[in-house]
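During the second half of the funding period, the structural biology subgroup turned its attention to how the target accommodates small molecules. The most pressing case was zinc ion, which had performed well in the primary screen but for which no bound structure existed. We therefore specified the complex as follows and requested a full 3D prediction, including the ligand pose.
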Amino acid sequence: MSNQNGPHPAQIAKHVGTVLASLGVLLFLSTFISAALNFGNFDNFHERGRSMALRAVFGFIFMIAGGAVHGVASSKERPKGGKFNDGTWNPGSDSELAGPINIRCPSCRALNDEAAKFCDQCGKNL
Ligand SMILES: [Zn+2]
């Protein structure tokens, strides 16, 4: 029994990707802000320049990684399947992410597996 309560794993990954990318942008921008704030100040110029370059590089990596995580998560949200020729749904390779799909019995409202031909509760045709 697997209940699909709470946010979808792909959605969590998407949020993590967004946060990561935002952090990267902030880190990246902070190097320019501190460069602007220290404009004309050449004390410890080399040390500051190195820490700024480090922050810029890490910010850039965060942005790329966040964007990649976000992109992968977004692509997983979209169903990759399509209709088979006989009209049944082909879930494609992402079927494990979609979780169980239940359908409700039209006569007794009981939840049944999508693949079930007859209702578990009342035995009616689904
Ligand atoms: Zn039923």
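Two results from this model are relevant to the next phase. Residues 28 and 59 are 5 Å apart (CA to CA). Residues 105, 107-108, 110, 119, 121-122, 124 surround zinc ion (CB under 6 Å).
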